[in-house]
Design a protein that fits this description.
Elements: E1 3-7, E2 10-12, E3 18-25, E4 33-39, E5 46-51, E6 58-60, E7 68-73, E8 78-83, E9 92-100, E10 102-105, E11 109-113
Parallel strand pairs: 2-11
Antiparallel strand pairs: 1-3, 3-8, 4-5, 4-9, 5-6, 7-8, 9-10, 9-11
Length: 115
């Protein structure tokens, strides 16, 4: 059974960093385009960053450009989101999303940026 499982969320002070991981199982991970989305309370889910299956095409939301970095390690079936210079407005539940023929969502990991 296919699973995408996020980890790495938590509480961090403004200006701090976190690295999220999304590990897949039960799928051929290297074929999947991977994305990170986030959803803040009372808001719609938004796309944060995306990376192609081979890692050669990457895109970011304007709000995170220069602060967040998406990457992947196909040998480890894992995608990452390195988040630096975190701000309170980055507080949200972060979801990984895999797409190839069909889509999968992780269960989400909470990121809270607060002093």
């Amino acid at each position: 059974q296919a699973q995408f499982v996020e980890s790495g969320g938590g509480l961090v002070q403004p200006g701090g960093s976190l690295r999220l991981s999304c590990t897949a199982s039960g799928v051929t991970f290297s074929r999947y385009r991977m994305s990170w989305y986030r959803q803040a309370p009372g808001q719609e889910r938004e796309l944060v960053a995306a990376i192609s299956s081979a890692g050669d095409s990457i895109s970011y939301a304007d709000s995170v450009k220069g602060r967040f970095t998406i990457s992947r390690d196909n040998a480890k079936n894992t995608a990452y989101l390195q988040m630096n210079s975190l701000q309170p407005e980055d507080t949200a539940v972060y979801y990984c999303h895999g797409l190839w023929l069909r889509q999968y969502w992780g269960q989400g990991t909470h990121v809270t940026v607060s002093s």
